[in-house]
Amino acid sequence: MTTTQAAAQARPQGPASAARTARATGPGFWTTRRRDALTGYLFILPQLIGVAVFVLLPVGMAIWYSLNERNVFTGEQTFVGGAHYAALADDPQLPDVLLATLLFSGGVVVVNISLGLLIAVLLNRRFRGVTLFRTLFFSPVVVSVVAWTLVWGFLLQDNGGINGLLATVGIDGPNWLQRGDTAMISVVLTQVVRSVGVNVVLFLAALQGVPRELYEAARIDGAGSRTVFFRVTLPLISPTVLLTVIVTVVGALQSFAQIAVLTGGGPELSTTVLVYYVFQQAFEFNDIGYGSTLALMLLSFVMLLTLLQWQLRRKWVFYED
């Protein structure tokens, strides 16, 4: 190497020379973008593992079981294809089960959302003891579902506390859990009283986020309380209303312990909702294949209702820019 060549290599490279050198060598594999992406994936990896193990794997197994006839005593499986899906159309009990599911879920959603919003509006005001009332309405949420249901089972018996209170005012109360017309009302109210506290907290948080200036402007314009609620409050908390409706619908469709402890699906099929019917077919009658098929039907209902409510947000939900 001559002195001239050594001096040329030692001379600092200009921008053009540095760019040519970078293109020649190529970028490293661990670029900043790839390192950031890897960091993000590592953060969500536990959640992805949980979804795969506790959601995707059980759904896949349910699909497999629905295509097979399984003998729980010998462990043998026989592939039957779509026989269990065809059996849905021939099940004489399924229409009554779907009707009970509709009545239970509809009752829970309507009463829970309406009552929760009403209580939240009342508790959003300043008065002495408001913190105590907020705690009282939320306290049933932290109680065990089975313990809560057992207590209400005793209260709703023929000689229970509810009928005892009615007797003090001269009313002969029915056997709430043994009559078809009152059993459904009993399980709906039991579910609502326990779970309404969650919606109350969500509605309270939304109500406290509404700017007070909007209320003052509405009152200056002469708007009454009803107009202020429907034209100011309700549109501004509509995203929270959408969230509570979705959560309440999914929770109602998955309610099992209340039915199992209070009525066992009876009398007859008046309170046999779909999730309890899945349990009966799979674990009481040992028909794993048909039970898995019903479970997939329930999953489809939950997904379709959630998707429908999510699509309706464009029409009913107001998002403040």
Pick out its properties:
15 helices; 72% helix; mainly alpha; disordered N terminus; 2 strands; 321 residues; two-stranded antiparallel sheet
Question: What would you note in describing this structure?
Answer:
The protein has helices at 3-10, 15-25, 32-66, 83-90, 94-123, 130-138, 145-155, 161-168, 180-208, 212-220, 225-236, 238-253, 257-262, 274-284, 288-316; strands spanning 68-70, 77-79. By secondary structure, it is mainly α. Strands 1-2 form a two-stranded antiparallel sheet. The protein starts with a helix and ends in a 5-residue tail after the last helix. Residues 3-8 have low confidence and may be disordered.
Secondary structure elements and pairings:
Elements: H1 3-10, H2 15-25, H3 32-66, E1 68-70, E2 77-79, H4 83-90, H5 94-123, H6 130-138, H7 145-155, H8 161-168, H9 180-208, H10 212-220, H11 225-236, H12 238-253, H13 257-262, H14 274-284, H15 288-316
Oligomeric status: single chain
Helix content: over 70%
Biggest sheet strand order reads 1-2
| Overall pLDDT metric | 87
Structural class: mainly alpha
**Measured on Cα atoms, how large is the radius of gyration?**
30 Å
Largest sheet: 2 strands, antiparallel
Number of helices: 15
Question: So what's the overall shape?
Answer: globular
- Give start-end ranges of low-pLDDT stretches: 3-8
Order of helices and strands: HHHEEHHHHHHHHHHHH
Give the amount of beta strand, in percent.
Answer: under 5%
Tell how many strands the DSSP assignment holds: 2
Distance between the termini: 68 Å
